[in-house]
Design brief:
Beta-Lactamase; 13 helices; 349 residues; 2 domains; 26% strand; 13 strands
């Protein structure tokens, strides 16, 4: 077994989400959100060999040795997949790995608002956003939703990722996974092509620029179910981020388009459990009903929090509402909840 494979297995068994390997400095894992040193006895040449062993082709090896950064997916002999970024610091090799796992969790078994996520997954068309900061579990949530569709409906699913994270085994659905830089040039190019490839569902790994966001909305308008991610921490911020990508003279139009296609926003953050045994997601759920659509169309996103507070019957809730629930159920500490949302009023719990 490769040394890197044994390091990844050790980190995964110790509940690490990330691994940092630095020549001359050792190996560090992120366990339940906190950095922990895993190994410190490797010589610099050994660390260099460990990092280089993940590169599978000569051209990438040449580029990295010349000082270029690399992004790719790596899979161990036992099927554990990682998202890898290789870079340099002080002219030394460095690797950052995000462990994706070998098994996609079932949506029905996740500690998430299952009924709402299932209802969103069953939408025939429209736009669904899964948002949150880096490392908040967005990819896992999306993978679970795609897996749910795969097990329950015969659909043509196209995923567009950089790099490919979870690998799906086809059940009822047909799934084509396209990787940026290998299968297609960019997210926007992949989305334009997807419209000619007869998809029912499109997953966009990152919606970060004007072209990609515009193409995703167009795909949703033309009858597809589109899943996308944003690095935002609330539903209202997610709406604002999309609108702000467009020039001022197009923003009223994009609000109207977004109001008609948005089916839901799932914002999530991971917090350490009170018992210290892992992390749990605190979520904010916005469902694109008529009231929400009107607020988006009229540029009243500051009122979305009120809509979520009054929309519990259709599965909506704010982040503060979910944090309060997690504290009441003694799943997280009040301090963790307050740190996640300074506006949370703990005295009302």
């Amino acid at each position: 077994m490769k040394k890197i494979d044994s390091i990844i297995r050790f980190a995964e068994r110790n509940n690490c989400s990330d691994i940092h390997i630095t020549a001359g400095s050792g190996i560090v894992g992120r366990q339940f959100g906190t950095l922990r040193r895993l190994e410190n006895h490797y010589l610099e040449d050994e660390v260099n060999d460990i990092i280089l062993s993940m590169i599978s082709n000569k051209e990438d090896l040449r580029l990295y040795k010349e000082g270029k950064d690399l992004d790719f997916a790596y899979q161990t002999e036992h099927g554990l997949r990682c998202r890898v970024n290789l870079y340099h610091q002080k002219s030394r090799y460095v690797a950052s790995l995000r462990i994706m796992g070998a098994v996609i969790p079932r949506l029905e078994e996740m500690d998430m608002p299952q009924s709402t996520l299932i209802a969103l997954s069953e939408q025939p068309r429209g736009l669904i956003l899964v948002t949150g900061p880096t490392g908040s579990g967005k990819s896992t949530t999306l993978a679970a939703m795609i897996d749910y569709i795969n097990r329950n409906r015969a659909e043509h699913i196209i995923t567009i990722e950089d790099p490919t994270e979870f690998v799906y085994t086809e059940e009822l659905s047909m799934i084509h996974q396209r990787e940026i830089g290998k299968d297609v040039e960019s997210f926007a190019a992949a989305l334009r092509s997807a419209l000619r490839e007869d998809p029912d569902i499109i997953l966009v790994g990152e919606m970060r620029d004007f072209e990609t966001i515009s193409a995703a909305i167009t795909a949703a308008e033309t009858g597809h179910l589109v899943f996308g991610t944003l690095h935002t921490i609330s539903a209202a911020e997610s709406i604002g981020r999309i609108v702000d990508v467009f020039p001022p003279h197009q923003q009223n139009q994009i609000r109207t388009q977004l109001a008609s296609v948005l089916r839901g926003v799932v914002s999530q953050q991971l917090l350490l459990r009170k018992d210290g045994n892992g992390r749990i997601a605190a979520t904010e759920i916005l469902v694109g009903n008529d009231a929400v659509a009107n607020l988006i169309r009229q540029d009243k996103t500051h009122q979305l929090e009120t809509a979520m507070q009054s929309g519990q019957a259709v599965g909506m809730h704010t982040l503060n509402m979910d944090l309060a629930r997690l504290v009441r159920e003694e799943l997280i500490t009040p301090e963790a909840a307050q740190k996640c949302s300074p506006s949370l009023n703990l005295s009302k719990l």
